Amino acid sequence: MKVILLLTGKTNDAWVKTAMAEYEKRLKHYLPFQIEVIPDLKSTKNLTEEQIKAKEAESILAWNKSGDVMVLLDENGEEYSSEGFAALMQKKMNAGVRNLVFVVGGPYGFDASVYAAVKERISLSRMTFSHQMVRVFFVEQIYRAMTILNGEPYHHS
Questions:
Q1: Backbone angle region of 85, left / alpha / beta, with phi > 0 → left and psi within -120 to 50 → alpha
Q2: How does pLDDT run across 135-155, given as a tens digit for each residue?
Q3: Backbone angles phi and psi of 34, in degrees to 5
Q4: pTM here?
Q5: Which residues, other chains included, contact 60 with Cβ-Cβ below 8 Å and sequence gap of 6+?
Q6: 64-99 residue pLDDT tens
Q7: Domain range summary for the chain, segments of one domain joined by +
């Protein structure tokens, strides 16, 4: 199974790029992993939040392909412990999922069309985090899940 982390908008923060690159490197030991970035929209000054979300939705839904599983990182999604998330990853691997695509939306969240098309949602926490922090936290959790599944000492229960 290949895991894809689909991000809306790039980051300019060097520390985020460094952390992401470190976990991306570590993850490739366990499974195919890639980070894809949907570029920031241009000329959004005259657009409403709903119009921005609709435009982002077009790019997000282009990644929702038959045979793949897309999961939204959403504040109203299901919360998991690290062990529970590892079990979810194992379940997806056992189900023969070709590509597991996790999506971090833009600053205004997801458009209704994305919610209609993608039923699976997970939440990192009930707290609100910046989109930059979510990227780092989530890629670390994917790595943690892989170490749990492989019985490695990275995670301490």
A1: alpha
A2: 999 999 999 999 999 999 998
A3: -145, 150
A4: 0.95
A5: 6, 8, 38, 103, 105, 110, 114
A6: 999 999 999 999 999 999 999 999 999 999 999 999
A7: 2-41+50-149
The contacts found for 143-150 with CB under 8 angstroms, 24 or more apart, are 143/23, 143/26, 143/27, 143/30, 144/82, 144/85, 144/86, 145/82, 145/85, 145/86, 145/88, 145/89, 146/27, 146/30, 146/31, 146/86, 146/89, 148/82, 148/83, 148/86, 149/86, 149/89, 149/90, 150/30
Architecture (CATH level 2) of domain 2-41+50-149: 3-Layer(aba) Sandwich (3.40)
Closest to 68 measured CA to CA, from 143, 123, 149, 3: 3
